[in-house]
Amino acid sequence: MRTYVCAQCHVEYFLADRQETVALPWARGLRADSILAYYDSTGHVDWLHATSLAPVLKAQHPDYELYTQGAHAHAGVTCSDCHMPHRRAHGRDVADHRTPDPLADVDHACRACHDASAKSLQDRVAGIQTATLELRTTALDALLSLIADIELARGTDSGRVTLRAARDFQRRAQFLLDFVESDRSLGFHAPQESARLLANSINFSRLGQTVIRGEGRPPIVDGAPPRPRRRMEVQGGSGLKRASLWGDGGGGW
Ligand code: HEC
Ligand code: HEC
Ligand code: HEC
Question: Is 210 helix (H, G, I), strand (E, B) or coil?
Fold first, then answer.
């Protein structure tokens, strides 16, 4: 309960029933790949990318889902243990309801369990966050390269299949990257899982570029990419435009 109380909100979700019900995409599991597979199976698309027209997703705040993949969750440590640490006040033991930054209060947030100096604990977090930031930046660069390639390919007579596959790779790369970025701990909640997702994201972006250049064989990906039927709004760039998923003048998606 000390975790589920936070997981009421700090999760990935989407709106179902004509945007009236908050729903959780967990039918296939809590990992980012499982959530992506679920969205692919239902054809869910949050928005069309303005320049590539890829049918992409927006991760919300999957702090809970990523946390479940980390060592602390496996050891039964809850969100509240770190974010609502216990302290003495007015002669009583209370949980801090201000959710202070754990790193600013390592004595209460971490040292109740870890017999290490505050500095060494802060250094370990910094090490994890620096490594995650480096991988995240590389993933972002790779994604931007893929988007630029798709944009260029739209101006040429690349086949529909190639563009469609490249856009599917963008959807995958972007969601995994966004999942890690939208967990707010910069990798700390689940360091190895965050690194795995970012590595897969980089791979998807580079595979997408390979496909566009005709150097790779057609991708083998799980599940069919989504095929939304309705018209969607394209966001970004010079504002909102309307575009049909089936005819963008550049060979469809
Ligand atoms: C009812 C929804 C809801 C629940 C339940 C909830 N949060 Fe939040 N939380 C939010 C929202 C919304 C924000 C962003 C607030 C803002 O940007 O001002 C937030 C922000 C935070 C932040 C960012 C820093 C801060 O203090 O603003 C932390 C840390 C946090 N929540 C931890 C937790 C923990 C731990 C729990 C469980 C004990 C929890 N939250 C339960 C909705 C919720
Ligand atoms: C083992 C300790 C630990 C556990 C367990 C933990 N967190 Fe965190 N969390 C941290 C640390 C450390 C940070 C990074 C703080 C920083 O960078 O300043 C963080 C960052 C966050 C942030 C961003 C805070 C901000 O100021 O922007 C949110 C929100 C958050 N955690 C929510 C959760 C939720 C929800 C859970 C449970 C599902 C959870 N955390 C479990 C230690 C923990
Ligand atoms: C309620 C007890 C508890 C609290 C509070 C706690 N930890 Fe942990 N921590 C553990 C346990 C248990 C493990 C896992 C040991 C194992 O699996 O070998 C762990 C593992 C770790 C690891 C290694 C695994 C990893 O994910 O990299 C680091 C680093 C760590 N903790 C740092 C912190 C920091 C920093 C805080 C405070 C923000 C904190 N811990 C708060 C109990 C706790």
Answer: helix
